[in-house]
Amino acid sequence: MASESLTVTAGKPGLISLVGRATDLDAGASVRFRQLGGGVIDCFVTTPFEVIASRRIEGELSRDGAVVAADNVLNALRLESRDIGAPRDPSWPGALPPAEGYQLLDTLPVTDVRQLADEGQKLARQFSGPLGPPSSLMNQTVITVEGGGEKVEIPMRMIFTCTSLRLIPGFSAGMDIPRHLRVAAAGRWVRLDAPFGSVYYSRGLGGVLPI
Fold it and tell me: Distance (Å, rounded) from C-alpha 72 to C-alpha 1?
């Protein structure tokens, strides 16, 4: 089976950071690519939290929708190789979130998100078992936002994903880095746009991504 290929012309450091942290969380993580035209590519990664995350790059891709092992992508980027490994499309958990059609509902200060994440980490250490934080903690609604006639609940699993992948800036980050997250929704999908990437969660399916 022929390998997939990727050439990155812009956004490489950010992609290395995202994919590297995804593999730290889950050695079996996958990456899926979506071409948006004009050389723009959205790169999605799986996480153990039933949430997917993404960063946007520019470059050339062998095939729209290609799914490959995250560790293969990471090695290729570090070695300046175009070969990102064999396709593994069946391993992707359902459909991707829509590329457009999102309604911006609210913005959240990074400090509030960090505080929620710190509280969640304390609870996770206190109550976690061998399989990680309990579902009751991950499914807990920590933020509710309303806008445009729509009400959206943000579960702890989205906050965990943002902080575990380090998508929000630390205290030492430059002042040019935004200090807020945007909450948007499109259908059953909720999206959090952080300064260093976006996370997506599908509502109403018990954590299972829609096909």
Answer: 15
What is the DSSP-derived secondary structure letter of residue 41? Answer: E
Rounded CA Rg of the chain: 17
112-144: pLDDT as tens digits: 777 777 776 676 666 555 556 778 888 889 889
Task: With both helix axes pointing from N to C terminus, report the angle between 110-127 and 156-164 in degrees, rounded to the nearest 10.
Answer: 100
Q: pTM for the complete prediction?
A: 0.88
Which domains are present in the chain? 4-91 (3.10.150.10), 103-202 (3.10.150)
Beta-strand relationship, 189-194 and 180-186:
antiparallel
Structure tokens at 57: 């790059």
Alpha-helical segments (H) within the chain? 12-25, 70-78, 110-127, 135-138, 156-164
Buried b (16+ CB within 10 A) or exposed e, 16-49: bbbbbbbbebeeebbbbbbbeeeeebbbbbbbbb
